[in-house]
Amino acid sequence: MKMADNLYRVLNSTSLGYQLYCFEDKQISLHTNRKKITYRGEKIVIGDVVRLDSQGVIDQILPRENYLQRPRLSNCDVAFVLVSCKEPDFSSYLLDKFLSFLHFYNIPAGILLTKADLLKKREMAALQKRMDYYRKLSYPVYFLNAHDETKFDFPLLREAIKGKSIAFVGQTGVGKSSLINLICPDFRRKVDALYVSSGRGRHTTKEIVLLPFEDGFIFDTPGFSELELRDVKTLDFANCFPGYDKYLNCCFFKDCCHLPSSKGCAVSQAVKDDELSLDSYENYLKIMEEVKVNDQWKKKL
User: Fold this and answer.
1) pTM of whole model > 0.90?
2) 91 is in an annotated binding site
3) Full set of structural domains in the chain with CATH
4) In the predicted model, what is the mean pLDDT of residues 146-169?
5) Is 220 a known ligand-binding residue?
């Protein structure tokens, strides 16, 4: 997203207003907003780009490149899904679920394999081969040791995140905090300092903060370790699962949910032809059942 003069980025929300980052002078300041200001019915969220009026009051939210409802943030250039190679064991199910979630909200995704130093050579070769499938789907993949920036793909990751607004997602225990600390050693102190400057004390809540970092930003998203596809309907999920959008108009029925029993299904045929991963297809069927349950529950409300 190219930024013009006199534009500001929303870093966090306080009882007194919003802390904004000025793109022109790179200063952080506190501002209030017009009460009725929204963008497509949604109030200001962390990550928004806004304009101020002559009195320094937020009076316009610029169009969002993407928007996530839970946690509420916008304009994320890339969200990296962290999956542990070991301790806990690698889970393609969680990986596919997170990737589907991000695809649904139009947020570009990358894959970070943490704790790669715990793998033996044979295990590393097997997981690399498994990741070739996701590389084929155009997902960037990085193997990392979250405690050593000189090993594996960390230098490549540092280069890839330059000048971007990034977020890290993944289950508890995969090394998200360790990775953030490796990228920005004083990250937590800077987040706390941002809160102190707003008069709120140390950051101990589960609120989202956007922290300026070098030429980009890092979303601090406490609690972004579990997700529910509550907003996703069955047909939406059928189209946002990794690699399945390619077959969007190839099935015989437009409302095909890509089940084994679906007639004329291009996805199930692609699985049989080894064009799509059988392992991922099995994950798809499991997650689809969860989506169906949520769909049925919402219809009863």
Assistant:
1) no
2) no
3) 7-64 (2.40.50), 73-220 (3.40.50.300), 234-300 (1.10.40.50)
4) 88
5) no
